[in-house]
Amino acid sequence: xxxxxxxxxxxxxxxxxxxxxxxxxxxxxxxxxxxxxxxxxxxxxxxxxxxxxxxxxxxxxxxxxxxxxxxxxxxxxxxxxxxxxxxxxxxxxxxxxxxxxxxxxxxxx
Amino acid sequence: xxxxxxxxxxxxxxxxxxxxxxxxxxxxxxxxxxxxxxxxxxxxxxxxxxxxxxxxxxxxxxxxxxxxxxxxxxxxxxxxxxxxxxxxxxxxxxxxxxxxxxxxxxxxxxxxxxxxxxxxxxxxxxxxxxxxxxxxxxxxxxxxxx
Lengths: 109, 146
Known about the structure:
The structure holds two protein chains of two kinds.
Chain A: E1 2-8, E2 11-20, H1 25-37, E3 41-52, H2 54-69, E4 74-77, H3 81-89, E5 97-99
Parallel strand pairs in A: 2-3, 3-4, 4-5
Antiparallel strand pairs in A: 1-2
Helix pairs in contact in A: 1-2
Chain B: E1 7-14, H1 18-34, H2 39-60, E2 68-75, E3 78-85, H3 108-116, E4 119-124, E5 131-138
Antiparallel strand pairs in B: 1-2, 2-3, 3-5, 4-5
Helix pairs in contact in B: 1-2, 2-3
């Protein structure tokens, strides 16, 4: 897995790529929580996620919970088919705000 | 309907390290595709197998890699995955998922396995410890005779 963070439209956008399993999820979790810890509204861009397991999903849930605690926006963006299937199986697809692309996320002033 | 003989599609022994897990996912996708599983089922079965392996590493071997034997079999239109470990023997009751709340990720791996597989069974692998986990699902495909 690799990731990159960019500031766009008032958000920190965490671009995740590759496979996220138990071994890679701490890195993804750290990237997401770091953005929120710095007070950024955060988007997690997931179009290049080929595989994600329960530990990766748990990192996303933790991001959502942290954002709520800090009154920050948090959404998933461009979720790949593979990742969406896992969110659906976990019955968490309705819990997250999901946008089709970064451009579709409402701009933060 | 005639019953096809059981066929072993894949046998692998590994330790659940990061690189081995990546290689195992690749190998499993290839074998499933060759047996006509569509992309969705490949992803689902790979997820169930990896969740089970990670459970073995996390809970059976206390977070350290340890020996895992994987056998994938096909019998008629069913796939059976068997995972054998050398960890302390678990109770089949450990396979009953806890009640999940939407935002509590605990037990999610087991929930995913149970959502994907039609049958999940756990038994002692031998008198000196170890576990044998069997997971069965129907092959969803258009290439049954392959």
